[in-house]
Amino acid sequence: MRAKLTTTSPEATDAAGERLGATLGPGDVVALTGELGAGKTVFVQGLVRALGVTSGATSPTFVLVNEYRGRLPVHHVDAYRTTTLTELLDLGLEELIDGGGVTVIEWAERLEPLVPARAVRVNIAGVGDEPREITIDDRRTTARAT
Q1: Angle of helix 40-50 relative to helix 10-21, nearest 10 degrees?
Q2: What is the 8-class DSSP label of residue 82?
Q3: If you count Cβ atoms within 10 Å of the first and of the last residue's Cβ in the chain, which end, N or C, has fewer?
Q4: pLDDT tens column, 51-61
């Protein structure tokens, strides 16, 4: 399933993340792409709230992975500062992706070979005061059927 929507505020981007988060279950992966400042972390804040995380989400740029506890474990990965796939493999990314929680990856294009076919791909276009064009390509049903 592919959907496109436009948001005109951080609150609306957060709400879009929350709507997607409400559909996620064990083993789901969300691969986020978009320019610096597009609102990926804002989207993730809504997404994790829908998963029962009460602490909120912060960008894991400097720690690479934040873990949150909600109705499911949520692993929030930020690949912005990584230079090799080996760095992410050494962090146990494959185990996170194949685990029983939800894995959310910002800057997913930097680790494309590790993103599973079943991932929900989210691209956020627009920066600054521009509206955000959010494209959601949900491949979960297609990947499970094959």
Answers
A1: 40
A2: -
A3: C
A4: 999 887 877 65
- Count CA atoms within 13 Å of residue 21 on its CB side: 26
Name the residue ranges covered by the structural domains of the chain: 2-145
- The answer to whether 91 and 114 are in contact (CB under 8 A) is no
Q: How many Å apart are CA 104 and CA 76, to the nearest integer?
A: 5
Q: pLDDT digits over 134-145, tens only?
A: 999 998 875 544
Please provide residue 90's backbone torsions phi and psi, each rounded to the nearest 5 degrees: -65, -25
C-alpha to C-alpha distance for 126 and 38, rounded to whole angstroms:
6
Distance of CA 96 to the CA centre of its chain: 13
Judge whether 88 and 79 are in contact, CB under 8 Å. Answer: yes
Other Cβ atoms less than 10 A from the Cβ of 35: the count is: 11
Domain 2-145 has CATH 3.40.50.300: yes
Residues 6+ apart with CB under 8 A from 79: 64, 88, 105, 106, 107, 108, 110, 111
* Rounded Cα–Cα distance for residues 80 and 27 (Å): 23
